[in-house]
Specification:
The chain is an alpha+beta fold. The chain contains five helices and five strands, in the order E-E-E-E-E-H-H-H-H-H. The protein is globular and about 45 Å long. 18% of the residues are buried.
Length: 137
């Protein structure tokens, strides 16, 4: 975070869409970088968005719930405890060190109200979850 105000650097590809505080914003024809200066802005990259019908696994369900906060469709304080419990449940399944660090990062981000970084950490668990589920079938 250095010396600048807390914020988020968002790198967008051409025509990429992002949802910021409920407004869909589309990038132009070139790659660009936005500096989001408002610390508690709700930001969701639409290319990363999980659709409701894709919430068939535990990690995807938690990601979707965090996404609902970012899109403004759920109130953070109303689902915080449920989300923390769900993230804690994931830590009982993903026991390797890397996964535990991601779960811890997600939990810490959620606790500090940083839903963007919470979602980012949880999304890194998705490929692990896929491998885990594939190995069980």
């Amino acid at each position: 975070r250095g010396g600048k105000m807390s914020g988020l650097d968002l790198k967008l590809g051409p025509k990429e869409r992002v949802l910021i505080n409920g407004a869909v914003i589309e990038n132009g024809d070139r790659r660009s970088r936005l500096a989001i200066m408002t610390p508690d802005a709700n930001i969701l990259r639409l290319r990363d968005a999980i659709h409701p019908e894709d919430t068939k696994t535990p990690v995807r369900r938690v990601c979707y719930a965090v996404q609902l906060v970012l899109s403004g469709d759920a109130k953070a304080d109303e689902i915080k405890h449920t989300l923390l419990r769900n993230i804690e449940e994931l830590s009982q399944v993903f026991v390797d060190l890397d996964s535990r660090q991601l779960i811890s990062a997600a939990s810490n981000a959620l606790t500090s109200g940083d839903h963007y970084h919470c979602l980012k950490a949880l999304k890194l668990l998705l490929p692990r979850e896929e491998r885990f589920l594939a190995a069980r079938n």
